[in-house]
Amino acid sequence: QVQLQESGPGLVKPSQTLSLTCTVSGGSITTNYYYWSWIRQPPGKGLEWIGYIDYSGNVYYSPSLTSRTSISSDTSKNHLTLQLSSVIPEDTAVYYCATGLGGDEYSNWGQGTQVTVSS
């Protein structure tokens, strides 16, 4: 079974870059035709899709975050990375990685990791 695990610093200072890793086990991130997404949920709000990288390395970001977002993968380590630059307190959220075949249908989610942006 595919499992995903988010990791990274839980506290980031404003203006710095948020960096998270999603480690994938039980399946390859190059498996046709899966997409690997980052999603976040701010306190008291709904889920917000950040972006994805697909099985061949193509990336796409939410228009509201594209200028600050970088998603990449390391196939040798079978993990995904998220970098969100110039963070502000409103970026505080639980961050998830998830996988699926496209659209809003996700077959597997990580447990999520809390990231707080504060000085």
Summarize the structure in words.
With 119 residues, the protein is mainly beta. The chain contains no helices and eleven strands. The strands form two sheets. Strands 2, 4, 5, 6, 9, 10 and 11 form a seven-stranded mixed beta sheet that branches. Strands 1-3-8-7 form a four-stranded antiparallel beta sheet, with no helix packed on it. The mean pLDDT is 96.
Protein traits:
119 residues, mainly beta, seven-stranded mixed sheet, 0% helix
Provide a compact summary of the structure.
With 119 residues, the chain is an all-beta fold. It has no helices and 11 strands. Helix content is 0%, strand content 50%.
End-to-end separation: 39 Å
Largest sheet entry: 7 strands, mixed
Rg from C-alpha positions? Answer: 13 Å
Q: Report the uncertain regions.
A: none
Strand content: over 45%
The average pLDDT value, as a whole number, equals 96
Helix content: under 10%
Q: Helices and strands in order, then pairings?
A:
Elements: E1 3-7, E2 11-12, E3 18-25, E4 35-41, E5 48-54, E6 59-61, E7 69-74, E8 79-84, E9 93-100, E10 108-109, E11 113-117
Parallel strand pairs: 2-11
Antiparallel strand pairs: 1-3, 3-8, 4-5, 4-9, 5-6, 7-8, 9-10, 9-11
